[in-house]
Amino acid sequence: xxxxxxxxxxxxxxxxxxxxxxxxxxxxxxxxxxxxxxxxxxxxxxxxxxxxxxxxxxxxxxxxxxxxxxxxxxxxxxxxxxxxxxxxxxxxxxxxxxxxxxxxxxxxxxxxxxx
Amino acid sequence: xxxxxxxxxxxxxxxxxxxxxxxxxxxxxxxxxxxxxxxxxxxxxxxxxxxxxxxxxxxxxxxxxxxxxxxxxxxxxxxxxxxxxxxxxxxxxxxxxxxxxxxxxxxxxxxxxxxx
Lengths: 115, 116
Description:
The complex is a heterodimer of chains A (115) and B (116).
Chain A: E1 5-7, E2 10-13, E3 19-24, E4 31-38, E5 42-50, E6 53-56, E7 65-71, E8 74-79, E9 88-95, E10 105-106, E11 110-114
Chain B: E1 3-5, E2 10-14, E3 19-21, E4 24-26, E5 33-38, E6 44-50, E7 56-58, E8 64-68, E9 73-78, E10 87-96, E11 102-106, E12 110-115
Parallel strand pairs in B: 2-12
Antiparallel strand pairs in B: 1-4, 3-9, 5-6, 5-10, 7-8, 8-9, 10-11, 10-12
């Protein structure tokens, strides 16, 4: 398996622009997670899906952020409008289930820079 | 709430020497603990996890971790460090969410630097 795939790997945009990050989970995994990593706040869970349905979005910072999962093999995280404080590395992860024993597998991340 | 603490921001060790990256946990109930490694410009890679059973858990790349219930610790170890082990290491714990479900809660990370 190719693992979790994310695109783009790097994104540089200007404040106010819309940004869309993409993720393809590992085939057969029912859960998909979006994380954000910054120096100040470390790794934060933004939202997760089960069978394409958003389950917990309490980590989404504000209404400028939205996430969708139209099918089992694709998810997007959108920021509109983007702001410089959104600059971070965004990771997607997937797991078979949500049992305490289940392992999450991470993608390589998208490094977002908002100027 | 469940949490993990990584008391050291950075650990330096000479190649060939044993290494230890520390992690302590705070949980109510049974702990489910994980170690991940992040190489520069890469995503997090799973190393190992403690679920139940043996206190010494063996993982990828020669790493192992020792679960100590009395000290509430889950330290990551390797008998002989390699320069290629230099990376950022994260400890994580399963945290139960109100309303059901659970999530991984990560520590702040420890930068390991292995020098020749």
